Amino acid sequence: MASLAYLFGVRRVRRRGEAWPLRRSIGFFVLGLLPYAVIELGFLGVYSGQLRWAFSTRIALLIFAVPAGIAAGRPLDLVPSPVRERLLASRVTRVFGNAMVATVVIAAVFCLFLTPVAGILRVDAVVEASLGVVVPLVGLAMVLPMMALGAVHTGTFIAIEFLLAFVELLIDSVPGLLMRLNDSVLDLIPDAAQAVSWWPSTLHDQHLAGDMIWFIAEFADVPILVILMIRWMRSDRVEAKGFDDLTDEEYDRMTRAHLRGER
User: Membrane spanning segments where (predicted)?
Assistant: First the structure.
């Protein structure tokens, strides 16, 4: 469905006589949907219900890597302008489209691996399968607005987001470290970890899960920092152009108003 919707959007844009770069389509399919298919249909998807490290790696990639790859295809640019503007102007989009909320959401998701909830989500076949849809949507709800709202947020707001993204680098590592260093099974699921000869022991399985969460979280934060840097640069250019367009009289009035504490 996502492929068909994207191709339909590209066709509609080109029918209007507008250019659509091929690199965006390649990004959407090669960096977004292809990794999603590999994750869900490959080893991680098959053994997600049995192995803790496969489950945690799958969730981390679905919330980080897949949304970032899909966002590279700029799917929001294919949405009709009136609909896109209303979507970006909505309160929900503005809330989720900043690094402040992303930091809290990602930390909350990873902290679930430290509780028995992770075991329940993993062993319940229906819930475990539904995560393959829900988790990428959560990631997209944060990444897509973050890329599109650069012209809406001020430079100061983006600077705060940038600083919080650095804080997220530290916060995201905590759950993985705790899983790696803990010598008790945190999800309380005494599964038969030796059902296959090459499977790790239950505790080693948890340690591997912690290692993967730690690595993926730290590595995946880099694209977010890049996105925020690009937004910061664009916002700075827009604000600088706004000042350049002012006449000397308008600039003097604005300066005097600022010194008086007026907006």
Answer: 21-47, 53-74, 95-119, 125-144, 151-171, 212-233
Angle at 65 between CA 109 and CA 7, to 5 degrees: 120
Q: 212-238 pLDDT, tens per residue? A: 988 887 776 666 666 666 666 766 666
| Non-local CB neighbours of 159 within 8 Å, separated by 6+ positions | 232
Contacts made by residues 189-194, CB under 8 angstroms, sequence distance 24+: 189/116, 189/119, 189/122, 189/123, 191/50, 191/123, 193/51
Report the candidate in 182, 185, 181, 176 with the shortest Cα–Cα distance to residue 209.
Answer: 176
d(CA 261, CA 263): 7
How far apart, in Å, are the Cα atoms of 237 and each of 154, 232, 234, 256?
11, 9, 5, 23
Q: pLDDT by residue (tens digit) across 98-149? A: 666 777 788 888 889 999 999 889 988 899 999 999 999 988 888 887 766 5
Q: Which residue has the higher pLDDT, 164 or 194?
A: 164
Give the DSSP letter of residue 246.
Answer: S
Closest CA to 149 of 221, 87, 241: 87
Q: Whose CA is closest to 113, among 187, 195, 168? A: 187
Nearest to 175 by CA among 210, 206, 204, 220: 210
- Phi-psi category of 192—alpha, beta or left, where left has phi over 0 and alpha has psi -120 to 50? beta
